[in-house]
Amino acid sequence: MSHRQRSILAAITLFFLAPIVAEFLLGDFPATWLPLIIVLAPMYGGGALLIRELTRRSGRGWPTILLLGVAYAIIEEAFTTQTLFNPDIFGMHMHLLSHGWIPALGIGAWWTLFMLNVHAFWSIGVSIALTEGLYPSRARTPWLGNIGLSVAAVLVAIGVVYNTWYTFHHDPFRATQAQFIVSALLVVVFAAAAFLISPASRDLSAPAATLATLAQSDSPRQPLPAPPAFITGVAAFLFGAAIMLSPILWKWNWGAPALMLGIDLVFLLGLGLFSERSAWTPLHTLSVGAGGALVYGVHAFMQPPIVPCSKSIALASHALFLVLALAVIAIAVHRTRSAMLLGPQEQPPAQPLFP
Fold it and tell me: What is the pLDDT of residues 286-331, one digit of tens each?
């Protein structure tokens, strides 16, 4: 298969994988609702693809992806669904904004932080990490040309407009003009911050065959060991599980968002520290995404879908998507390991996640 064919296949994979991770693996929808992917893919898949392409085209890495993921989260939750401001979305009586309520802003601190985590790390980050793991030889290169990038942007616009229209049509709530304006400004701020990060000066390949070369380069990574990829995956799973379990701390009120901020800080600092080391490989990056995906797969069994569904169908669906996630992870691990054993020209580049 040519590089061009692999790139197109990788783009299509991400386009459909993102909504599956974001909604079906999480457990919001059962397998019987899979046709809904036609509506969800342009927004989720198009968003993840556009973010990934803009990042890779500019030579940037994961800090840019995550910051753009936060901008995406604000667009979806402040404009498309308005859950950041709506105290009773679709009349579901979930009281999502009651915990850590900030009257001056009209938001709940816990729910806002939760949504930023969910979309930046899972909807965008996990989907990209898994897909790049499936196509390791193309992990650091753009997959789309100018036409493809334009199509992705149009799909995102269509997805956002349609889903926004659906929400406005089915829920009478409207955020205030000030809330919309501040949200738009924050989208611009996070998007600008994403591209203020300096592009990586070079690709850093982490397989053992190139470690000596890295040590002699102008700006080598720290010649220190990194935890085994299995350990980084387990750590990502535990951190992600703590975020997803934060609802049980609602009784803490402000304790839940404080805990979430602490988890985010430790997680990001840990990634920044260990990914700077020369022993960090593409397999480590994949393991972080895999750990996050498995958090969703397990979490699905802990709450019912948001649509009417029998318990038997829900359980079967959760099991199905968890097995599919495990299969994707296994294939990605195999392909990434195989690529790491090839010559330097075919090795998947590994960069510090937070250079």
Answer: 999 999 999 999 999 998 999 999 999 999 999 999 999 999 999 9
In a domain, 354, yes or no: no
Structure tokens at 324: 């599919």
Q: Which residues pair with 101 in a beta bridge?
A: 108
Low-confidence ranges of the chain (pLDDT < 50): 201-220, 344-346
Question: Is the CB of residue 313 less than 8 Å from the CB of residue 32?
Answer: yes
In a domain, 355, yes or no: no
Place of tokens 């802990």: 302
pTM of the full structure? 0.90
Q: What is the DSSP code string of 3-52?
A: HHHHHHHHHHHHHHHHHIIIIIITTSS-GGGGGGHHHHHHHHHHHHHHHH
Distance CA 33, CA 307 (A): 9
Task: Report how many domains make up the chain.
Answer: 1
Q: For residue 182, what are its two tokens?
A: 């501040």
Q: Which amino acid is at 51?
A: I
Q: Where does 216-310 have alpha helices with state H?
A: 229-244, 255-275, 282-299
Is 205 domain-assigned? yes
DSSP E strands in the chain: the ranges are: 101-102, 107-108
Neighbour tally for 163: CB within 10 Å:
19
| Euclidean distance between CA atoms 80 and 161, whole angstroms | 8
Q: Domain of residue 129: give its range.
A: 3-346
Residue 353 counted as domain residue = no
